[in-house]
TrEMBL record, chain A:
This is STAS domain-containing protein. Pfam families: RsbRD_N (PF14361), STAS (PF01740). Gene3D superfamilies: STAS domain. Keywords: Phosphoprotein. The lineage of its organism: Bacteria, Bacillati, Actinomycetota, Actinomycetes, Micromonosporales. Residues 158-269 form the STAS domain. Signal peptide: none annotated.
From TrEMBL, chain B:
Residues 35-134 form the Histidine kinase/HSP90-like ATPase domain. The keyword Nucleotide-binding applies. It comes from Actinoplanes aureus. SMART domains: HATPase_c. One of its GO terms (molecular function) is ATP binding. Pfam families: HATPase_c. Signal peptide: none annotated. InterPro entries: HATPase_C_sf (IPR036890), HATPase_dom (IPR003594). It comes from the Bacteria. Keywords: ATP-binding, Nucleotide-binding. This is ATP-binding protein. The keyword ATP-binding applies.
Length: 285, 134
């Protein structure tokens, strides 16, 4: 049952007339659901702003959240859902911030109990529901944007290229190596090879949980690309279970050097260069 | 006899990762050895990707099975895609129509204990694999 313009203005008056009582009741019930994770001053400001926005929207003749008169209300709701989503509140806690208005309003109306009032309240309740749904939609959008941002950040984070020694760079791969990450890894590695003029690169797959044909193909392509640039690639971190799986799958690493650990790979590379790793001699007595 | 079967629809790359995670969880639960876990997870990864890439998406069902002597995992990969025209060719090492290494299907067969494939051109493909505990 939608709100009629008549009812809208009646509720606008109610919101104005009982502003203080409503605000207290509303803030209290939101505070309970958020369990003190937001300061009461902040909460009071938010509900105060929201209440004002509701009142203005209704006074302006809005009968739905999508109406022009409710533009300010929508902006307030969007702000609430933005801040809730960014502060890590869940969907229920966000929606309750709006729904709580219904309880507060019911308490104000509780003094009268005729059918007309009930009818009004149901219509008002529908309006608040729409507002809550709008908040919810917005909340989901913000969360999705957050997740997309984080995924992008993770992509950046998880693919460092580190210098191990003069002329030796290493890529410690951690996690799932999908096409997007493989592309980032390859670009980073090739760029670092150019920047540092390193003739050796070690790709360490200790942190890759499963090496299937797609992962292997990505690694092989990276190795071939590095070779085209004149760098030698060594693959390290091949654990026993991965080795057995690779053999069963039938993946051939050809003449690419592979080592069980990063330490082995570094020793191997140093052995091919002019460096020698030897134990320090004890000083003679 | 089987229990606790779980289904995951496969329509994106993320779903392949989810299949892998589910298979690993169940593999740990039925106490597969680390090598067998890795083999099964890798096989699941290959077959789920086949379902996604060649089968245009489908459904993966993971269930625990047991016979008189031991327990294991059965995974069913089902799609309603174009099916496989020449199964022998598809199971040949190095044969691919999609630009991969051509080892996914044939390699997955070597990674599991039981491997069954039902396919009909135009109707789709269902691959069933079982890995038993040793």
């Amino acid at each position: 049952m939608p709100l009629s313009p008549d009812e809208a203005s009646r509720f606008a008056d109610l919101l104005k007339g009982h502003a203080e009582k409503l605000a207290t009741r509303w803030t209290d019930s939101v505070a309970t659901s958020l369990r003190g994770r937001l300061s009461s001053a902040e909460l009071q400001r938010q509900t105060g702003d929201l209440q004002k926005a509701f009142q203005q929207a209704l006074a302006g003749g809005a009968v739905d959240v999508t109406d022009d008169a409710a533009a300010e209300l929508r902006a307030q709701l969007a702000e609430i859902s933005n801040s809730r989503a960014r502060q890590g509140f869940n969907a229920t806690e966000t929606a309750v911030s709006v729904y709580a208005l219904k309880d507060a309003m019911l308490e104000i109306l509780g003094e009268q109990s005729d059918v007309a009032t009930l009818r009004d309240y149901v219509a008002f309740s529908t309006f608040v529901d729409r507002a809550a749904l709008f908040t919810f939609d917005n909340y989901v959008r913000v969360r999705e944007a957050l997740i997309a941002d984080q995924a992008e950040q993770l992509l950046e984070l998880s693919t460092p290229v580190v210098k191990l020694w003069e002329g030796v760079v290493a890529v410690p791969l951690v996690g799932t190596l999908d096409s997007a990450r493989a592309q980032v890894v390859m670009e980073r590695l090739l760029q670092t090879l150019v920047d540092t003029g390193s003739p050796y690169a070690i790709i360490d797959i200790t942190g890759v949980p499963a090496v299937d044909t797609q992962v292997a193909q990505h690694i092989l392509k990276t190795v071939v690309a590095a070779r085209l640039m004149g760098a030698d690639c060594i693959i390290s971190g091949i654990r026993p279970q991965i080795a057995q799986t690779i053999v069963a799958l039938g993946i051939e690493f050809g003449d690419i050097a592979t080592k069980a650990s990063l330490a082995d790979a570094l020793r191997y590379v140093l052995g091919k260069t002019s460096y020698r790793v030897v134990a320090a001699k004890r000083p003679e007595r | 006899m089987n229990d606790e079967s779980q289904r995951i629809p496969v329509s994106t790359d993320q779903d392949v990762v989810r299949v892998r995670q589910l298979v690993r969880t169940v593999a740990v639960a039925v106490k597969l050895s680390l090598v067998d876990q890795t083999k099964l997870v890798t096989a699941a990864s290959e077959l789920a990707r086949n379902t996604l890439v060649y089968g245009m998406g489908g459904m993966v069902e993971v269930s625990r099975v047991h016979n008189d002597r031991r327990g294991g995992i059965r995974i069913v990969f089902a799609d309603q895609g174009p099916g496989i025209v020449d199964l022998d060719l598809a199971l040949t090492d190095g044969y691919t129509t999609g630009g991969g290494l051509g080892l996914g299907l044939s390699g997955a067969r070597r990674l599991v204990d039981e491997f069954e494939i039902e396919t009909e051109p135009g109707k789709g493909t269902t691959v069933t694999v079982v890995k038993w505990c040793r």
